Amino acid sequence: MIKQILLVGLGGAVGSILRFLTSAFIVRIEPFPFPLATFLINILGCFCIGLFANLVPSNNLRMLLITGFCGGFTTFSTFASETLTFANNNQSILAFVYVLASCVIGISAVWLGMYLTK
């Protein structure tokens, strides 16, 4: 268990640092009213989790790359992967509810947190 915690922590640290650097780079070269950096990071994270899901056989390496790195880089990749898992398991309604609830409740939670701290 300690080994897995360390692997997730290491991957998460690298993913978080890479997210910060990628975001800073994109914002510097392309100031844009749309959150382009976040959008690109989320799409790249989704691509990475898709690659790692099929290419990484070792459980420890999965902890490092999928849970750690992708989790630190973006949690959106995990959300997308879980949604696709529902869809692939013929649970389309659950996938739809998960997407809708995550977006609506997530945005509402951000609004509520901002409202409460004004």
Describe the 3D structure.
With 118 residues, the protein is mainly α. It has one domain (1-116). Helix content is 86%, strand content 0%. It has helices spanning 2-29, 36-55, 59-73, 76-88, 92-116. The longest helix has 28 residues, at 2-29.
Question: Which descriptors would you attach to this protein?
Answer:
118 residues; mainly alpha
Question: How would you concisely characterize the structure shown here?
Answer:
This protein has five helices and no strands. With 118 residues, the protein is mainly alpha-helical.
Termini gap: 41 Å
- So how many helices? 5
Query: Uncertain runs with pLDDT below 50, 5 residues or more?
Result: none
Binned strand content: under 5%
Largest sheet: none
How many β-strand runs? 0
Mean pLDDT: 91
Q: How large is the radius of gyration?
A: 16 Å
- Overall helicity: over 70%
Structural class: mainly alpha
Helix-strand pattern, N to C? Answer: HHHHH
Name the shape in a single word. globular
Supply the number of structural domains.
Answer: 1
